[in-house]
Amino acid sequence: MAPPPHLSAPARAPTYALVGNPNCGKSTLFNALTGLKQKVGNYPGVTVEKKIGTTYSQHGQPITVIDLPGAYSLAARSPDEAVTRDVLLGRRSDTPPPDRILCIVDATNLERNLYLVHQILDLGRPVILVLNMMDLAAQAGLNVRVARLEKELGLPVIPCEAVTGKGLMELRLTMSRSDLPLARHAWNVPTPIAPAVSELASSLVEHDHKLPLTARAEALLLLTDQDSVRVAGSSPLSPRTTEILQGWQQRWAAEGTDWAGTLVNSRYDAIGELAAEVVQRVGVAGPSTSDRIDAVVTHPVWGWLVLGGVMTLLFVSIFTLAQGPMDWIGDHMAMLADGVKAQMPPGDLRGLITDGAIGGVGSIVTFLPQILILFCFIGLLESTGYMARAAFIMDRLMSRVGLNGKSFIPLLSSYACAIPGIMATRTIEDHKDRLVTILVAPLMSCSARLPVYLLMIAALLPGDLMPLGAKVGLMLLMYALGTLGAFGFAWFFKRTLLKGAPPMMIMELPPYRLPGLRDVALQMLERSWIFLRRAGTVILAISIVLWFLAAYPKAPDGATPTQQLAQSFAGQAGHLIEPVIRPLGFDWQIGIGLISSFAAREVFVSTLGVVFNAETTNDNTAPLRTALLAARWPDGRRLFTPLVCVTLMIFYVFAMQCMSTIAVVKRETNGWKWPLFQTLYMTGTAWILSFIFYQAGTALGF
Amino acid sequence: MAAALIKLSDLPIGSSATVRSFPPQDPAFIRLREMGLLVGTTVTLVRTAPLGDPLEIKLRGYRLTLRKSDAAHVQVEPTP
Amino acid sequence: MSPQVQTLLALALVALAATGLVWRAIVRRNHPGCGHDCSCPASALRPPVKQPRRP
Prior knowledge:
The structure holds three protein chains of three kinds. By secondary structure, chain A is an alpha/beta fold. Helix content of chain A is 60%, strand content 6%. Chain A folds into four domains: 5-176, Rossmann fold (3-Layer(aba) Sandwich); 194-256; 309-319 and 371-517, no CATH class; 324-364 and 526-699, no CATH class. Chain A is built from 32 helices and nine strands. Chain A has a six-stranded mixed beta sheet with strand order 2-3-1-4-5-7, with helices on both faces. In chain A, helix 4 links the parallel strand 4 and strand 5 (127-132). Chain B is of the alpha+beta class. Chain B is globular, with a radius of gyration of 12 Å. Chain B has a single domain (6-78), classed as Ferrous iron transport protein A (FeoA) (SH3 type barrels), CATH 2.30.30. Chain B has two helices and six strands. Chain B has helices spanning 27-34, 68-71; strands spanning 6-7, 16-21, 42-48, 55-59, 62-66, 75-78. By secondary structure, chain C is mainly alpha-helical. Chain C contains one helix and no strands. Chains in contact: A-B, A-C. At the A-C interface, helix 3, helix 16, helix 20, helix 24 and helix 31 of A face helix 1 of C. Strand 9 of chain A pairs antiparallel with strand 5 (62-66) of chain B, so a sheet runs across the interface.
């Protein structure tokens, strides 16, 4: 079959799509080619949306590269796989169909990886095959004969190690070629199915306006997956095509032909013959390092200890390792404020700088060390391959709740931030399960809650009276509370709003890899940059505006700072909601913090920084913690009693206070219904639980 | 074909078997086949999760996890 | 710096900050998504191309 000449030599610089199974190193290769810093990790669901970058040919010509989510098959079963399928089939309005395809396969696991390649060869576009992880294949005792593979498939095959950059030169050289051969695709559709494929393909071209080039591939997809509507994208099939499809299916059902199975088998038969030629097993590999690690990590006893140990270690280091840098930052922020106070006469601008800008931003920035430690741990877990093990261990519990282990990975990611967690739900096949996971993901304590928890724990007792164990324990308790809440609500939603059978759980357990220290460091750097940038822009602006709201309208001369704050705009707003939060033990000043933290949770800390800084008159800036301990109700009672501190923490565990998350949920669920519901149920639960806790605590005499 | 067929979920830990039959035309099982679990494929049951479910199986050089309830639909012939 | 000048400058800064926040909100409205807050992809998941249906 000779290809039309325009296909092999496009006039403009060609666009390449990067395609492969999950975890085969697409994003690592994409980063190496484009110099971008796309997030990588050793678990399925790191990339759930296409990402476009530019690389340069050996002559310096730009080549567009599209990184796509990993997929096992073009017969997509989850939204992330659908992204890949739709880009390749030219169904996306925002992405032109790629001219050429870079297929990345994991050399350690050639057969399963070649299944997707086999489907992609049906698309009739030039393909370059990248054999990634050749080093790991050699370690596993596999010898992949590259030249043989190249000859059998009739397309360029480039052995490569994306992590070290080995083979990149050759790849770039091949990508720059103006002519690329079309693969010799010798696969014949099995006889009972072949007539159906050609009939469906011509009907797809005629009645569904599919490109003739991809019509055969589309027809094969219709036959591989039962759910033809989902495969056809958003537009349903034309009546004629549906009729043909159903006609064939009925005929096969009567004959007892397992058409989808036959198709899969036939592809694997072809692959099996190829693999037998190409892969040589040299030497027998004993139990791998992965096996030995798994024997401990997924052990009935040790497994739980490892899980608990990692969590405890995380929180202990948050309290111990971070203390020094945190004090250093806090001291310097205070010095900065005092310096400004010494240089400037009292006035509004001085107040804005010291109380607003430094008070607000400074109180948040002190938590940078803790955020870094959290992301270091999460980065290590993500890059080693532990995430998939966590899903494996937790699947049984998740099945009790009515979800599956795959939902646990987005939930784990949500400990960092709910947004990537919600994005990662695209790997979940079942629509209802995905929705339930999205609804409960923000209950997992994200990094923005960390400053709030830490501030409240610090304010619990004056001085350093709290033993480390109690601090760590309280922190673990908050994380456990959020996690239990997520499980509980998932159980509840699966039984009421979003009923459905427990879905099938099929998940690959990728081998452990040494953590890419560079990747972890890069991610930490990026996270701290995001954190600081947020502090320097949004939080700075909010703090300045808040300072104004707390300083205006001006009280008559001679008013105390507290009187001034009470009658300011912010104070009025705080007083307005005081009746609602009074039963939780919160006063109007905390109310100001609660209102402002609906923009983002950590704004609570900067708000308290502004509010309580504005109330101190002296020229020495006190740490926020001291200011909180000094805060009083009008009748002289302490405001931040231990009971109130814990109640506030419980409120923050459950309340939905993050505009960015609401925006993402709206986008992922295509409407306002679910984000609004989520905000209401979470904040409602937060209020009710805080109420119960505070009232019970008061009744017990705390 | 003298050997008795058992369910994949009943396979003892550490032993291998060859897949003999599969529920036809079930979309979920189509995915399992697309991942290389076919009639004639040799699988090894590596371990079960700490709570007894799901299973970790090894096939074609990689590891897959699936639940016992799903594995019960796959008939295998244990390798002696 | 006299208190009056300070007040004037402070109010100007507040106005600047408020404008910044409003402008951000508008930009967000036009480009829905979460920006780059939590290193999530910037481009939205749009529905696939609508193919014309035959009457």
